[in-house]
């Protein structure tokens, strides 16, 4: 996803040996943007899957559980500079469930991960 040849979504998830402090701040910001973009594309795939099962026009009650991710990238890593906010006022959709006779059925579930944050 990244235009940088040094780091991107694939390299960043592959476990590079470098410390976060060794990357320029703009590279880290770009990686965080790439992570949010990849997560959005993943969510789009889930929405298309719902359409495939004719659930895109579902009008009955449903439950959405979200987790606030109030600005990714505010934390300070090691001895380097504080990483600027790359994604502000973001959130994670954790689960979407619909009621059934046997209790709620989850039709979408995401791991509790920063990579799930949506801008």
TrEMBL record:
Coiled coil: none annotated. Residues 64-119 form the V(D)J recombination-activating protein 1 RNase H domain. Pfam families: RAG1_pre-RNase_H, RAG1_RNase_H. GO terms for cellular component: DNA recombinase complex; endodeoxyribonuclease complex; nucleus. Residues 1-59 form the V(D)J recombination-activating protein 1 pre-RNase H domain. GO terms for molecular function: double-stranded DNA endonuclease activity; histone binding; protein homodimerization activity; sequence-specific DNA binding; ubiquitin protein ligase activity; zinc ion binding. GO terms for biological process: adaptive immune response; B cell differentiation; chromatin organization; T cell differentiation in thymus; V(D)J recombination. Signal peptide: none annotated. This is Recombination activating protein 1. It comes from Megophrys nasuta.
């Amino acid at each position: 996803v990244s235009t940088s040849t040094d780091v991107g979504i694939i390299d960043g998830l592959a476990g590079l040996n470098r410390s976060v402090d060794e990357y320029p701040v703009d590279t880290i910001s770009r990686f965080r943007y790439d992570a949010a973009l990849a997560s959005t594309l993943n969510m789009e795939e889930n929405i298309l899957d719902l359409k495939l099962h004719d659930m895109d026009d579902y009008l009955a009650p449903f439950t959405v559980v979200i987790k606030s991710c109030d600005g990714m990238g505010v934390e300070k890593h090691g001895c380097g500079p504080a990483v600027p906010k790359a994604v502000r006022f973001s959130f994670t959709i954790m689960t979407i469930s619909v009621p059934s006779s046997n209790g709620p059925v989850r039709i979408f579930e995401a791991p509790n991960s920063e990579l799930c944050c949506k801008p």
